[in-house]
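chain below, 481 aa
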Amino acid sequence: MVGELLADRYEVEEQVGAGGMSSVYRAHDRLLDRTVALKVMHQHYGSDPEYVERFRREARSVASLSHPNVVTVIDRGEHNGRQFIVFEYVDGENLKQLIQRRGAAPVDTALELGIQIAQALSFAHQQGLVHRDVKPQNVLLNGDGRAKVTDFGIARSLDVKRGMTQTGTVLGTSEYIAPEQAQGHHVDEHTDVYSLGVLLYELLTGSVPFRGDNFVAVAMRHINDPPTPLHELRPDVPPRVEQAVLRALAKDPQDRYPSMAAFCDELAVCLAELQGGATHVLPGRVPPRARRRPRRSFSAWPIVLALVALLAAGAIAGYLLLRTDNGPSTTRGQSGPPRTLSGNVRLQGLRGYDPYGDNHQEDNAGAPLATDGNSSTYWATEQYYDAPSLDKPGVGLLLDAGHPVQLRQLGFATATPGFTAEIEASNDPTDVHTVVSPPQVTSNVTYYSIKPGSSYRYYVIWITRLGGGRNQAFINEVRAN
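prediction:
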């Protein structure tokens, strides 16, 4: 297909992957002048209505998943009888390739990646989808160090009325398949928990727990055999981490974590216990759209290392901030905000607010994550290599109250404390400039007292300076009163 033009728009440039049902190509989108990924069904499946419907279902399923750790669907169509799906192009290797190239990962690296993957799968489960083929080949590593889950080709609805899977139908990859899936039984989110447990086992040891000469031999070992204890293969793995992985690998789905979110929480706590020393993270390359061009002697590694550490810290800090009994420390000058982040005014994250720069770079798609009620997700600024300076007056997150309201207090949790911010407001979302709070240096949880006066519909968390030695700021969750 290389050289062909699909839908008078997508020019196929190079094959970058292949599977049993489809091949993946890098292509150029002539309409929007960008690189995309094309997943094209193999021609001999085009006459099979079941395979065509499965392929179309993948496009519909992933199109409903807007999450930073899920590969985005852009379009779908048909070309000469062959179905295709257009995805965002992730310029990097998959996790399997990294394991094959580097072997077992440091414990904190495995946990960081596990948290990101768990967040993506938990979000899919919340939307009613179970992946059913979780494996490192289906985790792409973006240039900015972010893990992105892909290939929902055999994903199915979690709604029992619409069916989990047909009894007797075995789909998946043998090395990562859950016992109930291998037997063709009912599958649900516990199935994805098991497969993620296998993936983490491989990340920590460099090898999958069960091998065999064929699919059936491996599947039978998943059903019957216990895995070799992690500490025998990797003595430096902490006992709590080993127990977390082994619980995910329980033969009985009811003995595993009750949900992917619960598994994610436990991984976050495991990682928190490892904090305090240098964090080992996956190598990568500097994002191509950074604010400033680095000097020629600049190395990409420190930036990427810091970013991946921050991604993990986002999940940890949000979890600890909103669920601990003791609560985080308060911001300077405050005399005791609530011990947990709370509020009674519903705000919605609209987009990044960047009137002095390239607005589209400020993670517009991530804005709703700052108000989704999930403290492990976040909105993020782009990276600034001249940090703590932003090289402009500021940048912010635009919030919508739905109607004009006089706030008394606005607070937020962040995994990147130390940046300076103030609150600005307006009834025009394109021109938010009225300062309604004094600036503060942020802590893990920061509350701003809003000046009494007019009511406003739109509020901006306006960041003027980065801090903590970081070149990026996260806002994990916002509350207002």
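The two ends are 57 Å apart (CA to CA). Confidence is low (pLDDT under 50) at residues 154-171, 277-308, 315-340.
thats it, cya
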